[in-house]
Structures are given as C-alpha cells and as structure tokens.
Design brief:
Two copies of one chain form a homodimer.
Chain A: H1 7-34, H2 41-59, H3 62-74, H4 83-101, H5 104-127, H6 130-151, H7 157-165, H8 171-194, H9 210-224, E1 233-235, E2 241-245, E3 248-253, H10 260-278, H11 295-309, H12 313-326, H13 336-343, H14 360-376, H15 384-396, H16 422-442, H17 445-451, H18 455-464, H19 474-482, H20 489-502
Parallel strand pairs in A: 1-3
Antiparallel strand pairs in A: 2-3
Chain lengths: 506, 506
C-alpha cells in the first residue's frame, strides 16, 4: 500500500496524463484546419478516435476511482481536504463520474459520428442541400439523447447536455433570462430602425490589404495583453482559440480584403478567449482545476474585449488614427465618429457570427427554441428548415432565402453540441456585468481605453476570473466578481446608453 | 474466449492504437520545430513523455503478448501463418520483445534526458562550449549502455544499438564495408585535388531570393513525384521528413539567400525520404509491416533523388534553363557545364551535412570510430574534442578551429543515437546499387532524366523497395531488388566514372 500522503501527488500525475492526451488531441485539431494536407484527413480521424479512447480509459481507470474515494474518505494526513485540494477532488469526481457513466462504445460512436457529421454538414452547406444532412442530424440527436440519459438519467435531456457547457445552468434558468431580454432587445431594434439614423457601413467594405489587416490586428491584441511568446495567430475558415498546452494558446482568424470587420473583431474576440486561457492558474496546470470553468465565462472574456473594448468610442479615439495610417488613403475621408457608427451598426441579418451585439441574442434565442424542440422530438428533423424560416421571421423580421444561410449555417448540431448556443448570450450578459464591476473598482474605464492602458483591465480580469480556474461554479465565480448573480440589467443599461447615443434615441 | 479467427483483426486493432499514438507524437515533434511558440516548450516535453509512456504501455500490454503467442502457436483457422500474416506477427514479436525488455523507468529516463540533452547541446553548440555539454553526453551514453544491455544482453552494446536503426547489421559488417571504402575514397580525393580542375563554386553563393528558391524546389520535387496533396513543405533550422499519418508525410527545408545549394538539394533529399513514406503499402497501414524497414534503406531513397538524379549532368540539361529563368539575371553568365561542376565540387570540409558525395563517407567514418570508442569507454568524453580534431586531420586533412564545427556539430549523440551514423553511408552505397539495378531494368536512365520522365523511376522504386514496407530484412530487400548483398562496388564505379569525367582524371 503506497503512502496515503502522496495520494494527491498521484492524483495530479494521473490527471496530468489525461491532460497531455487532451492537449495532443488539441494540437491535432488545430493542425487539421491550419496545415494538414487533405490526404491526411482519414488518418486524422483515426488518430483522434484513439486519443479519445485513451482519455476515456484514463478517466475510467479503477486506480483513479480508488484514489478519489480514498481522498474523499480519508483526506490527507488524517484531516479532511480543504481549499484547492478539496476543489480538485470535487472537480475530479464530477468528471470521473461523467466519464464512467459513458459506455466506451458510446464514446467511440459519438467520436465517429462527429467526424462523419462534420464532413456531411460541410458538403451539405456548400451545396445548400439540407436533405443530405438530415440523416446525420437524426443520428447525432439520437446519440445526444443517449448521452444525456447516460450522464444524468434523472434530469431533462436538455439540462444534462447544457450542463456540459455551462455547469449548474438549466433550460429554465436560460428561459428566465431570455424571456424578458427578448422583448427588450426587440423593442430596441424597432426603436433603432425608426430612428432614421443610418450609419454608412459601406466604409468597412472598401479594399483593405490582408498584410496590413494582419499587422494591425496583431498590434492591437498584443497591446491588449495577448502574449505571442505563448501563442500564435494562423488563418482558418472558422476562427477559434485553442489551448495546446500551458504556455501555448493559439488563435486563428480569417481575412476578407473587402470587409475590415471580419479579421479585426474576430482576432480581438479570439484573443479575449486566449487571454483567459493564458492566465489560468499555473499551480493547477494539467488538472481540471487549472481549466476554464464554462463556455459562458469564456464567452464573457471574448465579448468583453471585442465589444466593450473593441467597439467602444473611447477605444477608437486613440486607435482610429493608427488604423487610418495602417491603410494609407483608404479611410482618409472617414471621420472617427462615422467609423465608430459603422462598426456598431444595428441591423437584423441572417448570419449569427456577423450579427451586431444587440440582434445577436435573437439568433441565439432562435437556436435555443429549435434545439429544445429537436431534442424532445416535438420538432421533426425534416421540418427544421421551415421552422427556422418561421422563427427567423418572427424574431428578426427576415427569412433566409436558402438553408445555407438558414439552418445549415452553424456547425454545432452536426457535432452533437445541443445546449451550447445559450452560452453565447450568457457570456455576453456576463461581459457587461463584469465590466460594470471593473468600473466600480478601477473608475472610468473610458479613460483607460483612451490612453491604451489595457494592463489594469486585464489585471482585474485575471484577479477576478482567470486566476480562479475551475475553483468555483460559474454562477458563484460571477457573484464573487460582481456581487450579483447573472442578470440582463447591466447589459440593457449598457446598450441603452451606447445605442441611445449612437442612434440619437429619445 | 473470443473467436480465435479474429485474432489477426484484434492484433491489427491493437497495433493501430500504438501507431496512432506514435503519429500524434510525430505531429507534436513537427509542430515543435515549425510553429510552436517558445512558451510551449515545457508543456511539449511533458506531452511527449506521456505519449512515449502510452506507446510503451501498449507495446507491453499482456493482451498483445497473449495475442502474439496464440498466433505463433495456433496460427489462424488451424493453419500456421504464411506470407504477410507471418511477417506481421514476426515484426510484432520483434518490437514487442524489445519494448518488454525496456523497463518503463528507463524509457521515461531516456525521454527526459533526450529533451534535456537536446536543449543543452543546442546552447553548447551556440556558445562553442563543449564542457557544458560533456555531463549530458556522459549521462546519455550511460543510458545508451543500459538500453543496449536491456534489449540485447548477449550482443556487443554497439551492435544492439546499431540494430535499432539498421536491423541485422553489426559493427563488423560496417567495418568490413568501410575499411576498403576508406582507402578508395581517400585515393579519389587525392586524385581530384591533384587534377588541377577547380570548379567555380562561388556561382552558388550569389544572391538567390527565397521565394524563387521555394518555387523552384517545390516544382522540382513535385515533378519527381512528391505528392503535395499528401504532404507539405515548411521551414526549419534542421531539414527533415516526417510521417504524420497515412496520406500525410511532411518535409521541411531551410533557405539561405547566399547559397543556392542548401534549400535545393535539401528539399530534394527530404522529398526522397518522403516519397518512400508516401508509397509504403497501404494495406498494412498502422502496422509495423507498413513502416519503412531501416534508416539505411531510407537514406538510399533520399540520396538517390538528391545525388543520382539531382546532381547528375543529364538532369540539369533539362533543368538548368528553368533554373536560370527562375532567377532572372543571376546565372545568365554561367554555362550549364560550370553549374554542374559547381554542384559536384569535391573538397574536404568540416561540416558533414555540407559535404560532397565523396568526402561525406569520411565524416561518417570519423563518427563511427569515435562513437564506438565512447560507448566502450576507451575514449573518455572529456577527450572527445581532441580525438575529433585528430581524426579529422587524419581522414580529411583539416582540423576544425572550434568544437562548434567539430564534435558539437551533430545532434545525434545528444539524443542517445549511437550506431545511427553508419546508416548514412550504407544508404549512399545502397542508392547506387539500386540505381544500377534500375538501369538494368529500364535502360539508359540519363534518357529519363533528360526528358524529365521521373514516374518510371519512382515506379521502379515503389515496386522494388517502397511497396514491401518491412516485409523483408534490409539486406534481403536489397538482394531481391538488386540481386546482390550491399556492396561498395556500384558506388565506386559510379563516382569513378562521374568524377573521372568532371575532374578529367586519367
């Protein structure tokens, strides 16, 4: 019998092994969309499946269960666990139980179906051919239901899945936030439409050379605090941030020479995610405690830098002359105010990832409604395109002319990610709540933005969010950081003030 | 008891899992030197160690041993194994026994020491500070001795290690080839020195823009048959080829704007390695039978394309005008004959990787002599720099002015790779032996080179070398392909004819 006092060390060792396998899988994913030659796709799917099985084997290993039981029962040195040690064992227990509840065959089936679903979805989207994707969606939904009943047999299926992305949250909680928010947002959209103010968004659609876009985006996120010695920026079709390991958190973006907004705000958004990952607690590296706590909190970081910082008038007071200099001749005739109005244009549109920070919620709500109905079977897969058009008209007042710009636009469902979309809105709400709390501590944040002093802002986020890793549940983390549970009020105060001024609302 | 008849399928499954872990490790290695930010180094070492342990665990798993014993004892369907099935079990047995002979602690110790040795060696080389590297070399040699006695307790240590790279080969076999070769090579170098012919190698040291070098190298290796849909070319300090998976074999190179030879011949060399890997038998993918058979055979492929093709006068008859066009104005005054003479200049020099195809062997022989002495202790690590200078003067007639250009120039020993160097010369000899056999089958190969018809050449190599994977031992593979065991004679015929003409020797 090994010395019980090194149980924590052995637990960390075991968890680190699982973490390294996950990190290897992360690099394989990153490579797949950045550098892998097309001929490597088949082998990559097999490699990913093997790594998924190896991770699952590590999480379900009897020696891990024994270690955790011993720590739960006996603690260390005869005393019960406390502080971070207790949190580590609690987090390990949560993930271990989830892994053990998943049959290995189901893990493998989901892994295979994700690869297949991704491939068929990509082709169906390109061809605007929903019918070819429908069988895959049905298969993935069946697996998602199976997964839900495996991991939480007593909970509603939607809650079981949503909890994977936003632990402690439920459909009821989301609905309670979304119901009043929906009305407020739609009222605001109507008022903005009626205001008569029309920003000239065409100025963002001039010719912006790629190299200059990249240089400006890199300079911007470096100033904000994204550390390139512990990260890098590559090009992908779909931008993302990914942690490949401690000290290695990468971001990707895409450039459109005919649209400045894509790479600029996309890079800031992903850098927001990445700064969270770069500042997670180093003492808990390679353990669940050292990881990000939820997708909602993750999104609060990306949205905060993208919107609260990157789309604020105060930020552009300093940044706009630099932007003009970065693209000689292109924006000489555009005043700073017109530029700020353009990057904050509010207009119902079809594509979620291109939506402004107000109508964005309507895209999320549409998906939240439809994915619950798909999961519980009240909406048949074949009826999804029609239901999407109907909800789009009801919520946004417009209807997609095809499924490519409708129900085929997002990858999530093809991957079995049901219950994921709400985290985008939860994160947006949390971002403003954190911003208000930061302002209470630091004073007028516009001053910081005007002077380009981002370090105190990042420092506040590190102290109140990043450094805690997964020590607290998301709701508790937010309560500690802001003094209140998640609410729409800070967000509504913010958009009313900002867009009231931009659109000269009464 | 599972059906014995699916034992082969289960064997393949088990081996595939090990292969996928090795492929993940290959991608991590590739990324480490192409794209990884510096901050990722520590995590990468931990990830690699975890993958090494996971591979070792798979190779030493009791169920693998049981499967192999059952197949060895009972065969399949009551009949003994034959053909590729028998070869697969034989290869698995060889690797399994080797893995089981290695204690997990030794595997981990070597993995750790390799990371450390690499790091210290890199710094020591940069600082020309052998003393700082000496303790690491001593540690690595101790581990190499331990490894040798673990895997082959009854064999001489050098043979045990050399067999890792060139199975079936021994120090005695290498010495039997090297002893006469040494005298022939030195005689040839003396004759060339006395010839009075002096190619103007300075024409390779003009200004060659990087982008044009890359475009020319890519076009060249694509024509030769390197498939970019199943590979890619990146930049690294030390060029290499690496198999990341079936359908994904990557190469790297380095560009020097003041030296054309570096990227051009380096890329062809690595593409030669990669074409071997791209054409291994697909039906044996992810099994030991589907892998390359030895480093000597590997090097025969890279050397064949680099030297027999890439440095031949016939090749440049067609390629030289294209090269001139790729670098407008740079080579206008240089005739094809002068260019061919320059890329075939024979001159004793200090750096192995920059040596011509004749003096190259002397660099290898120097290392072969010294590494045997280091391993058996007759040469103390502290005496290595002096011994290197002495051997260099004896073999090459020149002495390095420092250790950076002397005993610190190669990475191999820092990685515990003792017994590796001879494979470079064995491969060079094999490349010409294969070339002669190819000429017997296909006719005048110069005709093919003049017309740029590389597909029949590659086809011959695929049929006689690549497609066999590890089915035969290297010596047997060569005997089947060429009708004879490995010999220096084809090589000596080739260099006497080629350099006799270039240097107008009697």
């Amino acid at each position: 019998m090994p010395n019980p006092d090194d149980r924590l060390a052995r637990l960390r060792d075991h968890l680190a092994g699982a973490a390294h396998l996950a990190q290897a899988a992360a690099l394989l994913s990153w490579d797949q969309v950045t550098h892998m030659p097309s001929g490597g796709a088949e082998a990559r799917a097999r490699q990913m499946a093997t790594l998924a099985r190896a991770q699952h084997a590590r999480w379900t290993a009897p020696e891990l269960e024994e270690l955790v039981v011993a720590l739960e029962t006996d603690g260390v040195d005869g005393a019960p666990l406390a502080g971070d040690d207790a949190a580590l064992v609690r987090e390990t227990r949560r993930l271990l139980d989830r892994a053990r509840s998943m049959p290995a065959d189901l893990v493998a089936a989901i892994s295979r179906q994700r690869v297949r679903g991704r491939q068929v979805w990509g082709q169906a989207r390109a061809d605007d051919d929903f019918a070819s994707f429908a069988p895959e969606l049905r298969a993935m939904l069946a697996l998602a239901r199976e997964q839900a009943s495996a991991i939480a047999p007593d909970a509603p299926a939607y809650d079981a899945l949503h909890d994977l992305y936003e632990r402690g949250s439920t459909a009821a909680r989301v609905a309670a936030l979304f119901d009043p928010l929906r009305d407020e947002v739609r009222a605001l959209v109507v008022a903005i439409g009626a205001s008569g103010v029309r920003p000239d968004a065409g100025i963002l659609r001039r010719e912006f050379p790629e190299a200059a876009q990249e240089a400006f985006a890199v300079a911007t996120v470096r100033e904000m605090g994204y550390d390139f010695t512990r990260g890098r920026l590559d090009r992908t079709v779909h931008p993302f941030a990914i942690r490949v390991g401690a000290g290695d958190v990468r971001i990707t973006t895409r450039y459109r020479t005919d649209f400045l907004g894509s790479a600029l705000f996309g890079t800031i958004h992903e850098a927001g995610h990445a700064m969270y990952e770069q500042n997670l607690p180093a003492q808990h590296v390679d353990t669940p405690l050292g990881g990000s706590v939820s997708l909602g909190i993750h999104e609060s970081q990306s949205r905060l830098w993208e919107n609260l910082v990157g789309r604020s008038p105060a930020f552009w007071e300093r940044a706009y002359p630099r932007l003009q200099a970065a693209f000689p001749g292109v924006l000489d005739d555009v005043r700073s105010e017109a530029f700020v109005a353009a990057v904050n244009e509010v207009r119902p549109s079809l594509i979620r990832v291109e939506a402004d920070e107000i109508t964005y919620h309507l895209h999320v709500m549409l998906r939240f409604d439809l994915e619950r109905a798909l999961l519980d079977g009240s909406l048949a897969v074949d009826d999804l395109p029609g239901a999407w058009r109907e909800r789009s008209r009801a919520l946004l007042g417009i209807e997609p002319p095809n499924d490519r710009e409708g129900c085929l636009q997002d990858v999530h469902w093809s991957q079995g990610m049901v219950g994921y979309f709400p985290t985008y809105s939860l994160g947006t709400l949390a971002s403003v709540q954190l911003w208000e709390a930061m302002a209470r501590d630091l004073g007028d944040l516009d001053e910081f933005l005007r002077e380009g002093r981002f370090a105190p802002l990042l420092g506040w986020l590190v102290e109140h969010v990043h450094a805690h890793g997964s020590r607290h549940e998301p709701e508790e983390l937010l309560r500690r950081a802001t003094g209140a549970p998640l609410s729409s009020e800070p967000y509504l105060r913010y958009v009313r003030a900002k867009y009231g001024a931009l659109y000269r609302l009464a």
